[in-house]
Amino acid sequence: MRRRPPPPAKGLAGAIDRFAAVISPKWHRSRVQQRTAASLIGALSPYRGSEHSELRSDWITSDGSADHDTLYDMETLRERARHQVRNDGVAVGMLSTIVRNTVGTGIRPQSRVDGTVLGLDKKQVREFQRAAEGIFRRWMPFADARHEISFPALQRLIVRSFEENGDVFVVIRDLPLECPDGRRRPFSTAIELVEADRVSTPGSFPRHINPNTGNEVRGGVERNADGQAVACWILKKHPGDYALAGFVRRAESEYMRVAKYDEHGIRRVIHLIDPLRIGQSRGITGFAPVLSDLKDIQDSLEAERIGQRLAACVGLVHKTGNPFGVTEDEVSGTDDEGHGLEDFAPAMIHRIGLQDSIDTINPQRPGAGFDPFVMRNLRIIGAARGVPYEATSMDYSQVNFASGKCARNDARVTFLINQQQVELAWQDMYEAVMLEAFDRRMLPEFTRFNYLKNRDLYTRAEWIGPGYGYVQPDKEIGAARDGIQLGVTHPGAAAAENGFDVYEAIDQTALVEEYRREKGLPSIFALGGVAQPAKEEADPDEEHLPEPKKKPVGARA
Q: Where are the domains of the chain?
């Protein structure tokens, strides 16, 4: 089958072809051959996604670097994400679900000192773990540098800012021990949160180069020749604080250069970011791929609300056969533009002319396709954010135990990934507090000579997040017990899944047991406090036959 020649070019290219055909047929033939080859290459591409056809003519792409595709759009995406969270119930509901399941009532450390490598016995390991966890608990009420919110609230704000804005900066500061309210801080280490808007490149830097160090600064993050982040440039005032601070200039004098590490190697500026590409300097809000879907749902809901309001009103159209319109005795008043208004009240009888008629306005809302449209968009949004539809809409009415369990497991993986992403901030805070405690001789004495050299081993910790509770306690507790017996898990992991520290649970159980003995009460284990295996229920559809009698040994068949 012969291939058709390409159609004649249009516009300027067509005019050039016609001119070439007159003055140089060889030139004209060459142009047609080149156009034919180009069309063949586009049509015979081995990947359909790379074909150049009329159907894909509006597919506009970018081959820019990670920073080129990010830095110029991140402000607009950030502003639109904040607008949706402020005004859209779906967006704020999804964000609250992520924050609630990632942080909940707080994430706390569980010390995991490697006593084998450090040469510590079990007693010393447990002594250090108790001391470290107690020190961190004592520091938590004073973690906020502004003395306004608790440490769990600080954690929730970090995760919320990270998810909504794309990244967040955490600065570890040293404050005076004397608080403004007269209290005395137990530690000088404190946390200051910096919103993403405040970190940017000073406008006075030529070609984004710091003239003092020669390092490149992109999006406010300064990197050395090896590409490592060494400092951040933070505006002293928020650039959007127009009402109180006025217009904020981007001159170098309006910035603070904060080094990322101090002389002890402690990270002083924590940049929480989930990069999507190699070499990406700043983060993009997680709502970026679904902002249009969120806006479509919001606009559709608004249209439906207006339709419902119209449907709640009985709208009537008075068609009159009078060529002069409604007479003055039928008009009860006029509006601002001079149009006549007619009264309408319950049980009213209104006489109309022989040629007049009354039509009712019926908006027919909601439309038949509205609910499927909203559900499909919610599923798309949930898939993009890694949160199932059930968790996105908080609607569990259409699920059974198996599908609900699958949705819960999928959502839980997303929340665990989020916890791992922000553990960088918690771990750096923990190390900074432990270093101050060491300097103030608050750690056990046996750490005096090797703590600084083995700081990474002493500050190993597992971060315990919120528990998820049980849906069917008998089955889930039994599965955890079986896993511990088979060696595929351990009591610490089982307790952490429910938001508990296994050592604290054991200590509290021992205290309760001792108190019960003092009061002459039986042990909780004697009362069935330990979960027993669930009995298998008989299948009602299975026919039960009497068991055959056992034959005596040696009897003939």
A: 1-44, 473-527
